[in-house]
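User: I've been trying to design a sequence by hand for this structure and keep getting stuck. Would you show me what you'd pick, starting by listing the structure so we're on the same page?

Assistant: Good idea, let's start from the same input. This is the structure you sent:
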């Protein structure tokens, strides 16, 4: 009898191993189905966004890609566990498709070999990956459109790479940025200082020095200029990513200062605000090579910005011209309220003029650089442009818009002889508010009203006043930030705040561009901000130009950012390029000879292939399972089929021998339905 008992225990142990193997297979199978469903939901959401009805940015695209890539890696490993190493080739397919997606997402950002310097007459928009968008578009509108642009030359991305490689900087830069805690302002400052010190302490290679000096001497000979402006034109700048105000500009420099200032522009790529910008947009630092533009300095009598559409009210058939006396830096920095002219897009007639008081202007200093000059009282409220100049600006800006096919943000300057020059053009970010829910506000306690809408929407939180960049580290999460004037350094807290209000400012400043880019409800030109003490809970209704006491959830919901459309063709084009490597399904018929891992050309193909093979591995092989009668129970039924029920979610029955189960004993709802 002992031999029978021993045999029973041996067979039972074997049966338990068989059941455990089936249960293990089933767990892999279920994991594949779960990850497959999640990936398909992400794909569906991406397709929905591509139709242009919802707000998104590259952070959304990249986070969706990461979610899918993690899911695909899990599916592939589960399938290998389920069916064996023959499915390992899917790892290579996933990596190859991901590389194609990264190229589609980032564009062709490999730094191309080129001359160290190129004159504006040699470049157009086809050279954007060599000289950056700012330089490329200046060359384009100068040579293709025939519009006045200061004479100048571009210092290429290849020159930047030469500087970085000659000093073995890239690995050290990458290591420091990789270890950075973006949420820690002190860490951001520390890493920024370390990298800028690295850059500014390294010599510019001698062959590059000679190229810079030679090109500047040629520019001086052509234009008779003795002073120059040096401006950033990084790869990726002034595209769907504005990088507004993030990099350095040097005005009124001498030829002898060129090499030193060039190196400082390169170092400005690593200021705290610039690092925060490219990391918060999930951009790769090594792909953002710094090209630089050197132009003959314009001694500006007036300067400003043209928006070829009102960014807040784009259906209004007017373009906006903002203008100040002198150089335009105080306008784009938001330190002066400019004159604002609304000009008809249809016939260039002036529809509205708002003349601001302009107490000071920036001028070229005879010693170099720029200085502030007080305007006589009688001139402070004079228009900075006449009607003829406005019409020329409007005509030219619309010509630029027509050329590029999307609304434009154009910088310009007028010299002392009244000649107008264009200094920059980039896509204008348009926010079109949809009709919102009607919200009764007459019962809310109004604290302040008025101001100019920079970015519509509504946000609430505790008031926090800021007066200088040193205060940025202490800005609390969820704050309503109040400042005397805007400055681009505010970008480092835009991920934390719910609204922004300033006493001074305009819709054409760098900060305004960034606020619209980040979707932060923003009002400028709001007086008496001191009436709002720190810590007071308020709601800023930027759309309604009002500030109310308390957190008004209903109002915030009515103005929520999801109800906005961003007219940004660049980001939609990027998404469509990415989706071409995700959505199409090339594997259709499972009996097809093409139904192989090697023919998976998209993420969707991988999920389709893995789903089909998981089904086959789980169920087609189940009928061949040895010992299935030992681990299963025969179904007692009137159905004329020999059915063995195997419970994969529980242990073997405790009783040995013949086992059977009735229909009423089945507790699985799907099995009952079957």
């Amino acid at each position: 009898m002992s031999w029978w008992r021993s045999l029973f225990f041996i067979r039972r142990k074997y049966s338990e191993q068989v059941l455990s193997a089936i249960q293990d297979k089933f767990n892999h199978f279920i994991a594949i189905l779960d990850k497959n469903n999640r990936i398909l939901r992400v794909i569906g959401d991406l397709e929905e966004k591509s139709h242009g009805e919802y707000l998104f940015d590259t952070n959304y695209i990249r986070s969706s890609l990461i979610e899918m890539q993690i899911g695909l890696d899990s599916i592939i490993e589960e399938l290998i566990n389920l069916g064996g190493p023959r499915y390992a080739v899917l790892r290579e397919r996933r990596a190859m498709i991901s590389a194609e997606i990264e190229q589609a997402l980032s564009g062709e950002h490999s730094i191309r070999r080129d001359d160290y310097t190129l004159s504006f007459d040699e470049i157009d928009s086809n050279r954007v990956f060599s000289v950056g968008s700012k330089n490329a578009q200046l060359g384009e509108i100068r040579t293709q459109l025939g519009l006045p642009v200061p004479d100048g030359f571009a210092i290429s991305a290849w020159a930047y790479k030469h500087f970085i490689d000659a000093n073995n900087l890239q690995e050290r830069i990458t290591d420091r940025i990789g270890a950075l805690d973006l949420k820690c302002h002190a860490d951001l400052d520390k890493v920024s200082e370390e990298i800028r010190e690295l850059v500014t302490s390294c010599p510019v290679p001698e062959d590059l020095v000679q190229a810079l000096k030679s090109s500047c001497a040629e520019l001086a000979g052509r234009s008779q200029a003795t002073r120059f402006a040096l401006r950033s034109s990084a790869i990726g700048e002034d595209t769907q990513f504005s990088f507004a105000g993030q990099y350095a500009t040097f005005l009124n420099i001498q030829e002898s200062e060129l090499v030193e200032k060039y190196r400082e522009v390169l170092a400005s790529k690593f200021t705290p605000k610039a690092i925060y910008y490219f990391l918060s947009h999930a951009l790769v630092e090594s792909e953002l090579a710094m090209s630089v533009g050197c132009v003959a300095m314009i001694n500006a009598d007036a300067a400003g910005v043209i928006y070829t559409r009102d960014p807040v009210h784009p259906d209004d058939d007017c373009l906006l011209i903002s203008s100040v006396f002198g150089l335009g830096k105080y306008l784009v920095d938001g330190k002066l309220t400019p004159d604002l002219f609304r000009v008809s897009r249809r016939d260039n007639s002036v529809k509205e003029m708002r003349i601001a008081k302009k107490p000071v202007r920036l001028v070229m200093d005879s010693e170099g650089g720029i200085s502030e000059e007080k305007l006589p009282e009688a001139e402070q409220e004079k228009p900075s442009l006449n009607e003829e100049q406005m019409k020329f600006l409007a005509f030219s800006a619309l010509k630029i818009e027509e050329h590029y096919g999307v609304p434009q943000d154009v910088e310009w300057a007028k010299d002392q002889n009244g000649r107008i020059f264009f200094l920059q053009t980039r896509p204008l970010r348009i926010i079109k508010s949809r009709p919102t829910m009607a919200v009764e506000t007459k019962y809310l306690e109004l604290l302040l009203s008025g101001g100019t809408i920079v970015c519509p929407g509504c946000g609430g939180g505790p008031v926090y006043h800021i007066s200088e960049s040193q205060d940025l580290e202490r800005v609390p999460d969820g704050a309503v930030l109040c400042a005397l004037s805007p400055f681009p350094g505010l970008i480092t807290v835009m991920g934390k705040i719910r609204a922004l209000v300033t006493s001074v400012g305009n819709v054409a400043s760098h900060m305004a561009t960034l606020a619209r880019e980040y979707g932060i409800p923003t009002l400028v030109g709001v007086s008496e901000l001191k009436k709002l003490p720190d810590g007071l809970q308020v709601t800023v209704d930027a759309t309604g130009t009002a500030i109310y006491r308390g957190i008004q959830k209903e109002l915030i919901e009515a103005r929520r950012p999801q109800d906005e459309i961003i007219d940004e063709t660049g980001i939609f084009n990027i998404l469509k390029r990415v989706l071409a490597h995700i959505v199409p399904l090339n594997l259709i018929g499972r009996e097809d000879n093409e139904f192989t891992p090697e023919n998976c050309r998209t993420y969707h193909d991988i999920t389709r292939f893995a789903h089909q093979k998981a089904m086959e591995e789980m169920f087609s092989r189940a009928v061949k399972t040895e010992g299935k009668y030992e681990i299963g129970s025969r179904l007692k039924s009137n159905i004329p089929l020999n059915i063995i029920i195997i419970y994969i979610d529980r242990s073997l029955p405790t009783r040995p021998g013949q086992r059977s189960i009735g229909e009423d004993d089945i507790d699985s709802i799907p099995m009952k339905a079957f």
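That's my pick for every position. To get oriented when you compare it with your attempt: Residues 2-50 form the longest helix (49 residues). The first strand starts at residue 117 and ends at 119.
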